[in-house]
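Our preliminary data section would be incomplete without showing what the modeling component actually yields. Below, a chain of 313 amino acids is followed by its predicted structure, encoded as tokens that our downstream tools consume directly.
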Amino acid sequence: MDLEKRRFRWNKAKEKVFICVMIGIPLIQFAIFYVWMNFNSILMAFNEGPEVIWTDGFVSLGKDMYGWDNFRRIFENESKVFSVALKNTFLFFLVGTIVSLPISLFVSFFLYRKIPLSGFFRFVFFIPSITTALIYVSAFTTFFEQYGPVWKICQMIGADWSNPLENSVKGVLTVIFYSIWVGLGVNMLLYQSAMSRIPEEVMQVAQLDGVGWVRELFQLVIPMIWPTLSMTILLSFTGMFTGGSIVLLFNNEGRLSELNTISYWIFSRSGESAADVDRNVAATVGLFFTVVGFPIVMAVKYLLGKLDPDVEF
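Predicted structure:
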């Protein structure tokens, strides 16, 4: 009897140890890679570097000094590069929210209605989302380079050729076009999953009543998938200042100085070759836009909640 009790206690102890280990691993990762890293980045934002001490003609470094100097540097020393990065970031955000999301919604709706070749179009739009971004960017850039398909077409028709990625305006527009095309798949997957939950009886009654596709979309489908639609809109605002990260793959050789975003700007100043002061400024930019973006996201969340049609099915 005592042996069975000891065995039972031993099994319970092993079970508790297993649970603690399984819970402990993600908690440790959360503490290191989220809590500590974010706390350290806040400290870096106010870190102005070590104090310089002169003693009998010799220079020594004292303790780190903290202040607001990094915030001043953003708008003074880095103003020109920073303004370009901010402009491109807002451009990516506006195009992604005003253009990409509606296109994803409309395409998802017509695929939901099972138009001819819907399976083919679904494959075309989804394939970029399940393929490595580096492969697609490499193929996309090669498409426009000399001796590529576009160059050969220009040679055949006698037109002048120029690589759009080597032009400031055309380069930004080309990357935006790529981000729209590649970004359709994820939102379409979410929208089509939500549309698949709509009862078929509702759509059949609408067809019997002669409801057109415009009313069907705006008065039936959108209210029924509003939680999913509002979530994608909110996520778009959440990533307002971090959009355009695909620029890293397009501009890895630094061939286009105007192709810059806030996220790429922070990355370029946080690499191994960057000075400590550059990392501090990068942390300052991240903290600044976190403070700016948080009330915007909360306001958008409140407005989306107010617009919720509260449809149950």
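The CA atoms of residues 230 and 304 lie 6 Å apart. The first strand starts at residue 47 and ends at 55. Preliminary results of this kind motivate Aim 1 of the renewal.
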